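Final report, Chapter 2: Outcomes

The project's central promise was a pipeline that accepts a single protein chain and returns its three-dimensional structure in a standardized token representation, suitable for archiving and comparison. That pipeline is now operational. To close this chapter, we reproduce one record exactly as it appears in the project archive, with the input sequence first and the structure output second.
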Amino acid sequence: MKPSHLSAFSRFSSRATVPVVALVLAGLTATGCAPSTSDNSSKEDEKSGKLRVWLFQEVNNAPKKKVIDKAVAGFEKEHDGTDVEVSYIPIDTRAQKIKAAFNDPKSAPDVMEFGNTDTAGYVKDGGLLDISKEFGAWNDSTNIDPTAKYSLTIGGKVYGAPLFVGVRALYYRTDVFKELGLEPPTTQDELIATAKKIRSERPDLYGLAVGGAYTYGAMPFIWANGGDLANEKGKFGSNEYEAAIDSPDAQKGVKAYTSLFGDDNCPASKCAQWGGNDTIEAFASGKAGMAIGGDFSHQAIEAGKVKGKYKVVPLPGVKEGEIAPAFAGGNNIGVLKSTSHRTLAVELLKTLAGKQTQRELFDSMGFLPTFTDVRGSVADKDSFVKPFVKTLGDSAKFVPASPGWAAIDAQLVLPTMFQEIVSGRKSVESATKDAAKKMDEAFQQ
């Protein structure tokens, strides 16, 4: 769903990311719980007039506004008689605004930013316009990250364009590793052993900061072991799912992740309740030797006690040389069905989500571009982002593109599962089967 950055995990923590969980929680009213809307599709396609845009308000919004103002000015210059009005809406209160917009076209914007985990719910609610034809004819779309495009594709149709993406990798303390004679781990087993080595030699530190409520930090362990959260039923793009969290491979990943909760790494009494932001705070404050964090976590870590004492590498997979798949969170931009300026709105979407704007948003905000060629060029200029770019290019994955995912996240199905296991209340087999049952109920709603 930060994240989703939604600005969703630190700042992604406010995107599909405030954490992505928080983003989806905030958006639940606007998605899975929103009432069915009537068909508010506009039959008009005015070629001039006012276009309204809703974008998310950032913690420090001035750099984002500067980039958007420049893009809008260029658009207005190219489209005589067009006036673009941009409003920045708080993420925490966006749910009711979006719900109202879907039900009342007069209050709705023409173009809107949203967390990528919210797409399926918004499509189900009838709020977003199918722009498959325009997207397919957009030359730049061929360079868009496949995972980012997948987050916009519901039932084989495309409902917007990706604005930025965020992904996680492994932060580690260079001073601690040097002191203990350690090398960055190259396999999942080495990662777990290294974490416990750090804890053994430096009991004042958590080896690898983990959290029972850090769903997006746990997913790479499940995916790296060949498991998945859910399997798509029928042909690809059907967006109908059945839970797979209780499959043998997924259970291997769950066992690997939950093995990190204990006195020999991160005590369950403390870490079982942690979310993603808690693990980053532990690392930034110098209390952990390693942490799984996003490119969007950089600012928070730079502001902490470990500034100048850390590096980042891709999170290792099961075998040496493999990268553990990571959740590709981020935000998208879409056109509302109710717009009376379809052609102009789609053109504006292309401007706001285009290569130049994404390049400038990276320079000003650190948002990773969704265009693979642009992302490659920024990685060449900024070594910090290379591990994240490599992860995105090698093995990024997305959550089930289903309206049911919002309910699964809001009900804390996966955090509850992890916490039941690390507390000893349930076995891996029992907890995953119970979670799978709850997931299937959500998918079928």
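Archive annotation: The radius of gyration is 21 Å.
This record, like all others produced under the grant, will remain available to the consortium after the project formally closes.
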